[in-house]
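The freezer alarm interrupted the setup, so I double-checked each line after restarting. Inputs confirmed:
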Amino acid sequence: MNDDYTSTGIAGADKILGEKGIPRGHSILVAGGPGSGKTTFAIQFLYRGAAEYNEPGIYISLDEDPEDVKKNMSKFGWDLSKLEQEKKLAFINVSPVRVTSSEKAGLIQLGMKEFKLIKLLEAIREGIEEVRARRVVIDPITIFTLQYPDEVERIYAMRDLIADFRKTGCTNLLISELRGTGLDREHQFEEYLAQGVILLRTVVKDDRLTRIFQVEKMRGLEVDNQPRPYNITSNGIEVYPTLTVFK
Amino acid sequence: MNDDYTSTGIAGADKILGEKGIPRGHSILVAGGPGSGKTTFAIQFLYRGAAEYNEPGIYISLDEDPEDVKKNMSKFGWDLSKLEQEKKLAFINVSPVRVTSSEKAGLIQLGMKEFKLIKLLEAIREGIEEVRARRVVIDPITIFTLQYPDEVERIYAMRDLIADFRKTGCTNLLISELRGTGLDREHQFEEYLAQGVILLRTVVKDDRLTRIFQVEKMRGLEVDNQPRPYNITSNGIEVYPTLTVFK
Amino acid sequence: MNDDYTSTGIAGADKILGEKGIPRGHSILVAGGPGSGKTTFAIQFLYRGAAEYNEPGIYISLDEDPEDVKKNMSKFGWDLSKLEQEKKLAFINVSPVRVTSSEKAGLIQLGMKEFKLIKLLEAIREGIEEVRARRVVIDPITIFTLQYPDEVERIYAMRDLIADFRKTGCTNLLISELRGTGLDREHQFEEYLAQGVILLRTVVKDDRLTRIFQVEKMRGLEVDNQPRPYNITSNGIEVYPTLTVFK
Amino acid sequence: MNDDYTSTGIAGADKILGEKGIPRGHSILVAGGPGSGKTTFAIQFLYRGAAEYNEPGIYISLDEDPEDVKKNMSKFGWDLSKLEQEKKLAFINVSPVRVTSSEKAGLIQLGMKEFKLIKLLEAIREGIEEVRARRVVIDPITIFTLQYPDEVERIYAMRDLIADFRKTGCTNLLISELRGTGLDREHQFEEYLAQGVILLRTVVKDDRLTRIFQVEKMRGLEVDNQPRPYNITSNGIEVYPTLTVFK
Amino acid sequence: MNDDYTSTGIAGADKILGEKGIPRGHSILVAGGPGSGKTTFAIQFLYRGAAEYNEPGIYISLDEDPEDVKKNMSKFGWDLSKLEQEKKLAFINVSPVRVTSSEKAGLIQLGMKEFKLIKLLEAIREGIEEVRARRVVIDPITIFTLQYPDEVERIYAMRDLIADFRKTGCTNLLISELRGTGLDREHQFEEYLAQGVILLRTVVKDDRLTRIFQVEKMRGLEVDNQPRPYNITSNGIEVYPTLTVFK
Amino acid sequence: MNDDYTSTGIAGADKILGEKGIPRGHSILVAGGPGSGKTTFAIQFLYRGAAEYNEPGIYISLDEDPEDVKKNMSKFGWDLSKLEQEKKLAFINVSPVRVTSSEKAGLIQLGMKEFKLIKLLEAIREGIEEVRARRVVIDPITIFTLQYPDEVERIYAMRDLIADFRKTGCTNLLISELRGTGLDREHQFEEYLAQGVILLRTVVKDDRLTRIFQVEKMRGLEVDNQPRPYNITSNGIEVYPTLTVFK
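Predicted 3D structure, all chains:
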């Protein structure tokens, strides 16, 4: 594993990535359906980075309360709080402003208009400084892109975000929600902008639903683009790079 | 069954949920088509909670008159009125304002504009206080979300609702109507926001329609995500966690 | 057949409805494609109700002229006029205002804006008083719902209509036009609001088109939800509750 | 063939229509794709009516120049001009106003706004008086309905048109263009409004395209609703009511 | 080949057209996907007309520069320039106004608003006079129809264009771009307006892509409507009227 | 390889292009999904042109930073920097204006409105002069076309761009992002405007994903339009022109 690449921390995934991992500083789109383990993938990437590769990281939540995320991840036996105290991990909540319930209805719209690229960029910058981060996760990016109704604006906002990450040098995962399913789904524009795309999907095989991991794209790297089975085990996500799987 | 989880009260379902049940305080989306037994599932969850686990509950109706719901459920031999008198169950109707027929046409629009998040939140708060609820059901959530034509607003409203439930500590079911059918349907945004997603669907198997129960997602829990057959019996919904089923 | 239920009057259908029939006072959506026999089903329900179960009924037409409906039904040998004279049946035309052709073009729009829930509700009330109706049919409900372009308004109008029927205690059929075909069609919102849903469809089986009758939903009742073949015979609609049928 | 019905004039079609033909005064939608023989079907219906059943008819064109229609039909050896001179047939062109090319661009929009229900109704009335018509064809109805962008307006205009035809007592064919193909196409609203629906489609059978004729609907009549093969021969359209055909 | 018809000039195609060819003066829609040989078909039709049947023709380009078209066609060994000098062929460019690049951005919109039916009609008229044309090709018609956003306007513009061609007596091909693919594509409105429709498509047969030629429609003519294989050879397009082909 | 054509530089591709390559001066659309190797194809075309055929080229980036592109391509052992210094290659970034993050949010919209055809045309002209380019690549063209919301404007802008390239005499590749997948996808309008179309797709064959290269269209050239397998090897893209492949 030379210096231009960094391990995913996902068992079996690096093997699929040409034994190398992810090119440092790249923005990788991790897209999957509900329950596909997107957040588990993200936290595992940050945890192993901080615990094993001395790469501090930040988790930027646009949806769930980071405290809940940590609680949900406790079952994997990753001591996230310890790493947080050691300033090797930071959990940042940039989801829209919270207000007391009674005022909510009115403020929802306001909160929406306020939250834009700049707020996210500041959170990223502060987070990176705080722990000298080498890894960043935004979970999910979907809520961010949805705020640009015009497709071109959306593409530009996404491009600028990725360009900024490039400057920071941080390897980052952009967690994305798949709407369409099946192999004939339409491609989403983010798949073209990100430097790498990893898909977490489910197919029917031998009368069972099987989870498949696929590296659809990884710029600057020769990868195995065949879908491979994966599971969510008590140790986190495990990919089986030598097994074949197809509906 | 430790203290972090609570039983669904659905025969066979807890086994699929890692023998544990639903994480306390989580918002679970229960999505199904017409006649799939969504309301039966919801009432069974509340009834068993109140009758067997000493967890009072409230049923918040956004559509059907609670009196009708109780009548329809009578066939299962659940004594809901008794539990209601014992203040272990409450049935709350927050469906849009009713007026005398002759005035309706005009007021429909008004009723619509009026009904928003805040009204629902107050109903929930009062209901929880009234019976010291540990369980809440909103049936169906669809009518609530439909009122936000803008997708981002809709997502925010749903997120705020779920965040509020989190604060109450009540385990809650959000009953949702599936529009698309088949395994290749598009995912609905609620599936990403809820902490758990249970699907009640119908597939063709061996020349018959078969009902399938599937835990698509359950944060913080290792679950069996394979679809399993279920039936609506004289005792309510019964899931068969060891049988396999596929079209 | 106890007092809480009433016979459909359709040969074979009651057997599918748990030997009981339709819960009294419920609104049942009868949805089918062109030529599926929706109106035959509706008139047969009213005729048998009036002739055999002493349950007077009213047929509310939103499209075809009731005189034509009666003429088309004559082939089944049901003496509708006699029951009409005996005040056991009433045929009411609430289709939009008619004007002389020469003025039409202009008035179409006006007619549209005029016709709303209230007019329909008054027609129902008068009709019920006139024959002391226990059964009501609206054929088709589609033209009514189409008039609410906003989906939420449409849902509310439908809910109010069903709530009003509930008060009258009349068992009623809402005849609905299926747009999509095939088993993977999208569900229509009416299917969620109605207390029961009966589908009349056509599938290809053994190189022939076969008509299938399916009770998709029936609140408060245990039913056979398998599709069953049916025919339009010289005696009206006949369902074969013991035969299986699938494409 | 009793007096309530009239022959289609299409070889084999009456057999499918319960040996009876079309109920007099009904509006029949004849829907097919390009090249399916819709216009041939329409002219054959009018020609045989005038030549063999002493039922004069009028052909109302909303698209092609009637002179061209007559020319195209000449290959079938039907002497349309003779019947025209005998006042047993009339060909009426109600397509939008023609102007000299140089002015066209500007007038297209105007022509569009002008042409509405009333103009069509007057043309029908005059045509009926001119030849004492018992049969009417509108070819195609599509251009008429397209002019009502609002779906409800469109439905009302179509309903009024059919109601007017009812008053004239003329049996009439409304020629309609199928957009979708395949057996799973969406139903078009006209299929619900017309009293009868005949489909002219094409399916793949035994590695060939085969033309299929299907009576989807015929109010007041027991019909064979199975699809049957048909051809366009030198004598016009021929349906084979005893052959089965399916993809 | 009698005087009412004219040869397509495409080897094998006339045989499919009842040994007759295309009815003189008709507008034929030639629709195909990218690379299907639409333009080759059009030029071959004009070339053979001018060279073998003494029918001068004009090629009206709405997209590609006629010079490029001629260059691309040179591989077929058709001496188009010679026929051009002999005033037997004319190549007319009516694509939107060209301006120097630096001004383009601004003028694009303007060019669009300017270009309408009338301009096309004048080009046709002048072209016809110039070479006493008997044949006309518009390639592609798509760019023309796209300019009418309203569907009814689009239909009227197309009808007027076809009506004008009718007056000129010129047999003409309207080259159209197929968007949808497969046998279940939606029909395009032009297919109903044109007097003939020829489809150039591609299907998978025996693990290869095969080009298929199909006469979907040809008014006034009995044709073979089965799809037949075709190739683009060094002599132009060749259709094989006796071979069958199907996926 | 005569003077009217130029090699693609892609092993095996010229053989599919009639042993000739691409007609000089043509605009070729290269369309593929994420990770299909579109950019590799583009750079390989430029590299071989400059290194082996003495045809300098320019790479115009509308998305990724050219420095990143060069870095990603380094794995193929193409010495791009050397050619750059020798003025045989130029890498130009015309992606929307960059500004400091803090100002971004506001400027995105502005940047969008600014960037239009003219800016792209100037970049092309300067680039061509700088290296006396014979080859040009725009990667991706998608971002350019997306900026014209009106379909007709989009078509015109694309036509003008291609017409300008024609004048420069430069052979050029327009890299395009495929949204739809599968063989039944809708055709994109660019496929009709470009003089050649090459598709890079993925199909399932023998339980594996297989990459397929297909020349859908190449004006003025007889090509093999069958899909052929290709791989991304350590030498770049390799096409296997004699192997067949199909799902």
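Quick read of the result. Confidence is low (pLDDT under 50) at residues 98-114 of chain A.
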